[in-house]
Amino acid sequence: MLSAKLRAVSFFIHRWLGLAIGILLCIAGLTGSVLVFWHEIDHWVLAQRLGTVVPAGAIVPVAAIIESIKTAYGKKQWNLSTVAPPQSAEEPYQAWLETPAHHHWQVFVHPYTGQIMGDREWETSWVGLIYDLHYKLLAGETGTLVMGIVALLTLILSLTGIVLWPGWRNFMAGFKIKWKNAHIKRTNFDIHKVSGIITAIFLGLIGFTGFAWNVPQAKVNEAIYAVTFTPKPAAPVSKPIPGQQPLSIAELIQRAEAVIPDATMTYIVLPKKPDSPLIVSKRQTQESSQWGNTRVAIDQFTGELIQLTDGLKPTRAEAIMSQFDAVHFGTFGGLATRILYVFVGLAPLALLITGFVMWKHQRRVPKPGHS
């Protein structure tokens, strides 16, 4: 009896949620499929526009790159926020700047000559537009909230789909699609159930992480700290010294590099305010994340280490949250899972079409007593 009631409730929720958010979920899925390989696509796009980087000797130190960018863009009063060193011999330095109007620009610098290769406004670039459509429907903060709610409903949609899967009664039948001598409605249903069960867990994880990112008001991170009994670390701050200027960027970077010196620097977050630290992200050899999960925070006035987050020794909460990127973008299993995630992103379109066909058919079924 409980099972029948659970299935009935799940069916009602699954049907109407699917119809309600189907179009928005398709937008998120299709754009997500593109974003799985956006780095590789963008590398090719930039090479066509800016030219290729040919390795030639040692790369220019990152501190010199920072000073070069500040000199070139300082008159525009743009704030240089982040600089990412090249992660391969053929990549340029990438820097992020924010304008007074809160637009974001990327600047690309040749790593062997120090020359600025070009720049672009992120919001109007091909990938920026797709990101904006994926995360906020090109609709600002309202769109961010809407897509966050869609992400949560996607998790519910996935869970109810798992409950309704026919494979709980006959496991092998749950993965079969009947093509031969089958009515089109039967084949349609089989496509829905098989594509749904294969992608349900992945869509659920994508939905959960998307909700956590898009709706910070839900305090998902705080909840993870609480349920894992992990104290949340305080945000690192610099302590301004009256009458003293901050140390040079070169010296701050040198101090940060001395902390876990064998790790690879992946990006630098420059101090934005007097009490902001310099933060260096690093990737240790055993870390699988592209950017690493090791963070070094340095006081910009004293050069002292304020906070160290060791990617190889995370707290229970950090161990969970550090996997958000991997399960959302499909990088946890390397190239194989990234390819899989392309199809996971296409699945909502197939599920919407097949689900809509089933709904239309059920609406046309005559009720008992009617001709």
Written description of the protein model:
The protein has 371 residues and is of the alpha+beta class. The protein contains eleven helices and eight strands. The model has no long low-confidence stretch (mean pLDDT 94).
Question: What are the main properties of this structure?
Answer:
371 residues; alpha+beta; OB fold (Dihydrolipoamide Acetyltransferase, E2P); eight-stranded antiparallel beta sheet; 11 helices; 8 strands; 12% strand; elongated
Secondary-structure map:
Elements: H1 2-35, H2 38-50, H3 62-73, E1 79-84, E2 93-98, E3 104-109, E4 116-121, H4 126-136, H5 140-164, H6 184-214, H7 220-227, H8 249-257, E5 264-269, E6 278-283, E7 294-298, E8 305-309, H9 316-321, H10 324-329, H11 335-364
Antiparallel strand pairs: 1-2, 1-5, 2-3, 3-4, 5-6, 6-7, 7-8
Helix pairs in contact: 1-4, 1-5, 1-11, 4-5, 5-6, 6-11
Number of strands: 8
What is the global morphology?
elongated
How many helices does DSSP assign?
11
Count of individual domains: 3
Following the backbone from N to C, one meets helices and strands in this order, namely: HHHEEEEHHHHHEEEEHHH
What value does the Rg take, in angstroms? 25 Å
Describe, in short, the structure shown.
With 371 residues, the protein is α+β, with helices and mostly antiparallel strands.
